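Recap slide: DNA-binding response regulator, sequence and predicted structure.
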Amino acid sequence: MTILIIEDEELTARKLQRLLTDVAPAARVVGMTVSVEESVEWLRTHPRPDLIFMDIELADGQSFDIFNQIAVKSPVIFTTAYDEYAIKAFRVNSIDYLLKPVKEDDLRQALAKLQALRQVLVGHTGETGTGGLDDSLANLLDYLRSATPTPVPPLTSTTQPPATFRDRFMIKQGQRLFSVGIEEVAYFFTRNKMSFLKTRDNHEWLLDYTIDELSHMLDPRRFFRLNRQVITELRAVDKVHLYFNGKLKINLQPVFDEEVIVSREKAGDFKLWLGE
């Protein structure tokens, strides 16, 4: 089975590739792309892969934009840190929707689901010859597009949180190790594909986690993921400004050295989190 991975965080892409090696040793990753533009070009110039793993939020837009520019002829498994795109994902070639960080059991189940669908939908075409394979794939995609999706319920204030969240992080500074308590954290952010912790007294420490992994470690009552780059603690939100097209502009304390924008889609959830 040939696989294309569309993911703009290199560390996350490599982790998925290693997980695939463990779960499906016969699978072969034939390409990795990081943006809508690069993905469309890859699909235009390479043979159709048997499966695509597709992150939703890419550097230059959402991966759904790929479907508007080219006919995607492969089944897709979406990977994302958010659950609000589930219904939209099932309207395209999606066979599954995995929340990051992707777990081995979830990946096994998704691949098993793909195999089961292929076996069921081969139908009368048989299993020999390229025509049979192409017809089977066409049947699978028709089924995926026409199937009524089962809605994935969004996270709400009544959702039971995990039993525990991280209450401290280990920091390495040279040959010294120490921990930073969660009460000291102002926000987490990424820079040059690396993740950092910013403390309330304006110290900055490198972490060995992606921003997606961090988003699952933190208590959502205290922390909110503002965008792909920043997760903030409630007390670090200094000012909130209305921005164009329903977006919000956030000032953090300590000051963050880049503009922090909350998308229109997340603005409502952010206001509720603040206590609107």
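The CA atoms of residues 13 and 50 lie 18 Å apart.
The chain has two domains: 2-146, 168-274.
(End of recap.)
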